[in-house]
Design brief:
about 325 residues, four-stranded antiparallel β-sheet
């Protein structure tokens, strides 16, 4: 037996099926996670439309309705915490392989225009959309290729707290050169560039401002609760210049020549505007080589790969 009721919207009455609405409400709840019968009763009681007449028998009847409609629902038992669990359902989003690939490409492209926080929101949005397809292959690809996939979100949440700025912390870091090591850093800010997250700050080991790739930070070991420490908003890059660029080189205002060789010079640059500095390096073509720091080498390689990928697509 199906019951109906009215709801008011902008002084207009809209007729709805209570039975249909209740069925959809329970389906949506089970799509999220398994629920006990008491939890389902409470969900119906908390809803203005279904709160008038609710019982465990009502829930059981609705569960049977969903089963008749093609849903496979696991019965409550001790092994599953006495929860109803939705195992399969016929309400899937149908998209072609072409449409799926287009969605993944859209996610990849627009990520360059977003903040890292919006990128995480984008990940969640696309995961929910692709989950509706019930296609395990699509779901796996969407998960494995999501942006910032290798970043530990608990560590990121801790590092992004405003009260940590200017504080000294010790982290366990997986260096591409030295392997795992403990690094002390005074936190400056989090930087999102070229689909990578970096922690900027003064690193005591190197005695200068530098960047750590956040996905390589494996653990926060300690946080110094003393007063904040102000640090300069730049880091230094050393590079060697040779070839035709060596003969035509003129120092920028933020650069100094620290060594002259017969056929090359070594330059130290104080990098305030990284974008402009990278564009300057690209003007040298293949006539330069980054000496330090290693994180900047990685960033430059990532930038070149992104440019190549853009041309290929």
């Amino acid at each position: 037996m199906y019951t109906t009721d009215t709801i008011s919207e902008n002084d207009k009455k809209i007729w709805i099926s209570i039975t249909g609405y209740r069925t959809l409400l329970i389906l949506i709840s089970l799509l999220k996670e398994g629920k006990t019968i008491d939890e389902l009763v409470q969900i119906l009681k908390n809803d203005n439309i279904t709160s008038k007449s609710v019982s465990k028998d009502t829930v059981r009847l609705t569960i049977n309705t969903l089963k008749s409609a093609g849903c496979a629902i696991l019965r409550p038992s001790k092994s599953n915490g006495y929860k109803y669990e939705l195992m399969e359902h016929p309400y899937s989003l149908n998209i072609s392989k072409f449409d799926f690939d287009s969605l993944m490409l859209i996610r990849d492209r627009i990520s360059n225009e977003l903040s890292w926080k919006k990128v995480l929101d984008l990940n969640n949005l696309f995961s929910k959309i692709i989950a509706l397809t019930s296609n395990n292959s699509y779901i796996e690809i969407c998960e494995n290729e999501k942006l910032l996939n290798n970043v530990n979100l608990k560590i990121l949440s801790e590092l992004s707290k405003p009260n940590l700025k200017g504080k000294k912390i010790k982290v366990k870091y997986l260096s591409p050169k030295n392997g795992e090591e403990d690094i002390d850093i005074i936190i400056q800010k989090i930087i999102y560039e070229h689909k990578k997250l970096y922690l900027s700050g003064y690193i005591f080991k190197y005695n200068k401002v530098s960047l750590l790739n956040i996905e390589r930070i494996k653990k926060i070991l300690a946080i110094d609760i003393s007063e904040r420490i102000n640090i300069n908003d730049y880091y230094e890059v050393e590079y060697e210049l040779f070839g035709n660029s060596y003969n035509q080189y003129e120092p920028a205002s933020y650069e100094e020549i620290i060594k002259k060789n017969k056929n090359s010079i070594i330059i130290r640059a104080k990098v305030l505007n990284e974008f402009c500095f990278i564009q300057r390096l690209f003007l040298f073509g293949s006539d330069f080589k980054i000496i330090s720091p290693s994180f900047f080498k990685e960033k430059l390689i990532d930038k070149i790969l992104q440019i190549q990928k853009g041309y290929q697509e």
